[in-house]
Automatic annotation (TrEMBL):
Its EC number is 2.5.1.72. It comes from the Bacteria. Its cofactor is [4Fe-4S] cluster. The gene is nadA. It comes from Aeoliella straminimaris. This is Quinolinate synthase.
Length: 376
């Protein structure tokens, strides 16, 4: 008779102190050695970041997963689309061949760590929009570009239709790449990243209709608006960055003369345009690191990153660009308890929370992701 081991329950981990959890995570790290790679996105809470082997923005984390050599398991302290991307890149055919067919397991410590923006575009909605657009304009002349903050099914759609994935650090280059192929671009799911980037390429708002998947016809647009379009934007946004407002910029400028406003390009146009500098989370960090002591900043991105920058740069004056708390509640779901629980389950041969993209979706997503990694 065989007995099947049961996975540990999460509940007991919730009552352990952070110190106990840290010890258990460190013990798991020691046991797994080079086989384990813990990746952490910059928005994670400090105690999780402390456990990460590598931290980065979405682009860098994708590169790290793509380049990983010795590891056989990645614990992704980020959100669902990031873990999917890591699975696709770490297990692409050439890497599998190098490892004699051995897969890299990708764990998302809490399966509920999703992204509200990614959830604003379902594959069925994208396919419907594409078909409907085809009744008005030639879809052969549209290159789809998806922000990496999207489900793997959207990345696969983009791969199949000659398109590309972008991150906030290469959106400009990705849209340029797309315009070298066709005269129109469809950009999803973040309208703000799409708009802010295209405005910097001399494309005007009247050339950027917004496609609302819940509108009864043509995404809420006229035929004329679609015919005049250069970039068709999807009606999606980040609920965190949406909360930064122009009046917050005005308040900081008035109270702190000389202050610089530094924002993530997921912020709405009216805030983005008022900023002095912008960039991905990685670029925001580099900008602060490179600034002379005594510089003053109001930063419009997720709270945990801004608080960490404040801690790490006491020589600079750093403010959070909002009087209200803007934090990514789904990133915050990853905590030490989930990390310890998922690592111990893995070690004990009862892995939980494995992210595995099906072969067909992975194959086409990879086409679009490889283009992303080539375009910078
Ligand atoms: P980057 O880390 O690419 O700047 O992205 C920010 C973000 O919102 C991740 O979801
Ligand atoms: Fe998604 Fe916004 Fe959270 Fe990034 S910050 S993971 S875009 S909800």
């Amino acid at each position: 008779m065989t007995t099947t081991a049961l996975a540990h329950e999460l509940k007991p981990y919730k009552s352990l102190s952070n110190d106990e959890l840290r010890q258990r995570i460190l013990a798991a790290k020691q046991q797994l050695g080079d086989r384990l790679l813990i990746l952490g996105h910059h928005y994670q809470q400090d105690e999780v970041i402390e456990m990460a082997d590598l931290r980065g923005d979405s682009y860098l984390l994708s590169q790290m997963a793509a380049d990983s050599q010795d590891c056989r398991v990645i614990a992704f302290c980020g959100v669902h689309f990031m873990a999917e991307t890591a699975d696709i890149l770490a297990n692409r055919p050439e890497k599998l061949a190098e490892r004699g067919g051995e897969r890299v397991d990708v764990i998302l410590p809490d399966m509920a760590a999703g992204c509200s923006m990614a959830d604003m575009a379902a594959i069925e909605q994208i396919e419907d929009a594409w078909d409907e657009l085809g009744e008005v304009i030639d879809t052969q002349d549209i290159t789809p570009v998806t922000y990496i903050n999207s489900a793997a099914s959207l990345k696969a759609f983009v791969g199949r239709h000659g398109g590309i994935v972008c991150t906030s650090s290469n959106a400009h280059a990705a849209i340029e790449w797309a315009f070298a192929k066709t005269s129109r671009v469809m950009f999803f799911p973040d309208q703000h990243l799409g708009r802010n980037t295209a405005l910097g390429m001399n494309i005007t708002n009247d050339q950027m209709p917004v496609w609302d998947p819940y509108a009864s016809e043509l995404g809420g647009n006229t035929e004329q608006a679609l015919e005049n379009s250069k970039v068709i934007l999807w009606k999606g946004h980040c609920s965190v960055h949406q909360m930064f407002r122009p009046e917050h910029v005005a308040m900081f400028r008035e109270k702190h003369p000389g202050i610089k406003i530094l924002v993530h390009p997921e912020c709405p146009q009216e805030v983005f345009e008022l900023a002095d500098e912008y960039g991905s989370t990685g670029k925001i960090i580099k900008t602060v690191e490179a600034a002379p002591p005594g510089s003053k900043w109001a930063i419009g991105t997720e709270l945990h990153l801004v608080n960490r920058l404040k801690e790490e740069h006491p020589e600079q004056e750093i403010h959070f660009l909002s009087p209200v708390v803007c934090m990514c509640a789904t990133m915050y779901r990853i905590d030490l308890a989930h990390l310890a629980w998922s690592l111990e389950n893995y070690l004990d041969g009862t892995p939980t929370n494995l992210i595995e993209v099906d072969d067909e979706t992975a194959k086409w997503s990879l086409v679009a992701l490889e283009r992303m990694l080539e375009v910078k």
